[in-house]
TrEMBL record:
Keywords: Cell outer membrane, Lipoprotein, Membrane, Palmitate, Signal. This is Outer membrane lipoprotein omp10. It is a lipid-anchor. The lineage of its organism: Bacteria, Pseudomonadati, Pseudomonadota, Alphaproteobacteria, Hyphomicrobiales. Its main location: membrane. It comes from Aureimonas jatrophae. It is found in: Cell outer membrane. It comes from the Bacteria. Residues 1-23 form the signal peptide. Belongs to the rhizobiaceae omp10 lipoprotein family. It holds the Pfam family OMP10.
Amino acid sequence: MRHPFFALSALAVLLTGCQSAPTARIATAPTPAGFEGNWRSVGGPVAYTATFAGGRFTSRESATGAVLAEGNYTKTGPAQTSIIYRSAARGEQTSVNCNQMAADRLACVNSAGARFELSRSA
């Protein structure tokens, strides 16, 4: 009768030795939510960055850092925002509505019907 007891004890010791050490977790920055932060243009004739901060909107040309437009934005829904900005080059005011398609993607359309996308900057 001792034989099954020793066999089970040996099996338990072997299985205990096969367990792996806990895996280390690598800390990563949380994915930003909402519109706040820095975004970059996707496609289009001019590469630019857009910043949403505390209700203020600013876009800058990526190559030179020159301000392209400044204005304000208002969150109009859980994944929607409305932007009203003034173009630095022409001085024209434009209205834009954006939908956040994913944490890192905005799909926008301006008052003239032109569509464009922004991708969250790292």
